[in-house]
Amino acid sequence: MTRLPRITGKELARIVGKFGFVHSHTLGSHAVYIHPDGRKTVIPVHAGEEIGPGLLNKIIKKDLAVTRDEFLSKV
Fold first, then answer.
1. Is 35 among the domain residues?
2. Sheet of 22-27, strand order
3. Where in the sequence is the domain holding 55, given as residue range(s)?
4. Would residue 48 be called left, alpha or beta, if left means φ above 0 and alpha means ψ between -120 and 50 degrees?
């Protein structure tokens, strides 16, 4: 299994946009992205901090509903 890259919230926000998610609103330092089919994801955008591997895995599998390989192809 391929290792996930270490990315920041800002980089992850750019990637989820490639999957059709659109920025809805921001609550403090958390950006909310919504897909036209109703799926939603919340991305913590803390300056300079990387997204932890557990949260990144959850966003990929449950929120984006794609495989790791599909996600890595957009990185």
1. yes
2. 22-27, 30-34, 40-44
3. 9-74
4. left
Give the pLDDT confidence of 6-50 residue by residue, as tens digits.
999 999 999 999 999 999 999 999 999 999 999 999 999 998 899
Amino acid identity at 2 = T
Q: How many domains does the chain have?
A: 1
Question: Within a domain: residue 2?
Answer: no
We report the CATH number of the domain holding residue 57 as 3.30.920.30
What's the predicted TM-score (pTM) here?
0.91
Which amino acid is present at 39? R
User: What is the reported pLDDT for 16?
Assistant: 97
Residue 12 amino acid letter: L
